[in-house]
Amino acid sequence: MKKINFILIFIGIFILINFLSLYLTIYYYKNFILDVYIVGSDFRDGDNIGYIGEQKEDLNIAINRKTHKWGYLENSYKVKIPFKFDNARDFSEGLAAVKNSSVKWGYIDKKGKLIVDYQYDDASNFKNGVANVKKGKKEYKIYNPYKLNECKS
Question: Which of 116, 75, 80 is nearest to 99 (CA)?
Answer without folding.
Answer: 116
